Design the sequence.
């Protein structure tokens, strides 16, 4: 989905001006990406779901977008090259995570669902001094806690790449990123994890 920031703002201007066709256009443009984002956000957290669950969350997202006179859409500013698609995707991820929290499904409790630290070679190589101070169980708990503190986009990326074992290019396709953007996202997310864990160890 390639739309310029100008095109995004023009669509929003027409929508916020009460243009019914603009509302239909927005739903048509983003319906499928919203479905995909919901699906992969749930998959990244090992949450089982049905077609009805996807439909309900899809409807919830669009209700949220149009609620309170399109309050969420009005907050879109297109800063730093952020497209309307990225904005809607972020809202979708947050909506799904809020839904899971309300259902008590946001906390990973099963040991088999924990992300193995062996898969985070970049983290271990650069932060071995910090990791060596912790027992394996504490490493796992701290790692998951660190991931929970990342932005939703980073969480989804890491869980698809590390937990699901998908390659960078595969995750890029799922999240509709360019390969270069995917590698940049990975680098930044790993860096944030290292910083969080090093601070946590120092304070322990």
Sequence:
């Amino acid at each position: 989905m390639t739309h310029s920031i100008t095109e995004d703002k023009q669509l929003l201007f027409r929508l916020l001006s009460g243009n019914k066709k603009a509302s239909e256009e927005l739903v048509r443009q983003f319906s499928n990406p919203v479905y995909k984002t919901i699906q992969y956000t749930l998959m990244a957290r090992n949450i089982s779901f049905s077609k009805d669950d996807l439909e309900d969350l899809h409807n919830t997202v669009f209700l949220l977008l149009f609620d309170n006179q399109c309050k969420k859409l009005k907050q879109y500013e297109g800063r730093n090259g952020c497209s309307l698609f990225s904005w809607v995707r972020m809202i979708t991820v947050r909506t799904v995570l809020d839904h899971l929290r309300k259902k008590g499904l946001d906390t990973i409790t099963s040991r088999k669902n924990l992300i193995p630290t062996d898969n985070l070679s970049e983290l271990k190589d650069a932060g071995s001094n910090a990791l060596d101070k912790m027992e394996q169980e504490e490493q796992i708990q701290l790692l998951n806690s660190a991931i929970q503190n990342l932005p939703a986009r980073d969480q989804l990326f890491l869980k698809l790449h590390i937990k699901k074992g998908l390659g960078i290019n595969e995750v890029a396709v799922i999240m509709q990123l360019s390969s270069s953007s995917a590698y940049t996202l990975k680098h930044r997310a790993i860096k944030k994890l290292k910083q969080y864990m090093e601070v946590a160890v120092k304070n322990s």
In short: The domain at 5-102 is CATH 1.10.1740.10 (Rna Polymerase Sigma Factor; Chain: A). Confidence is low (pLDDT under 50) at residues 107-135.
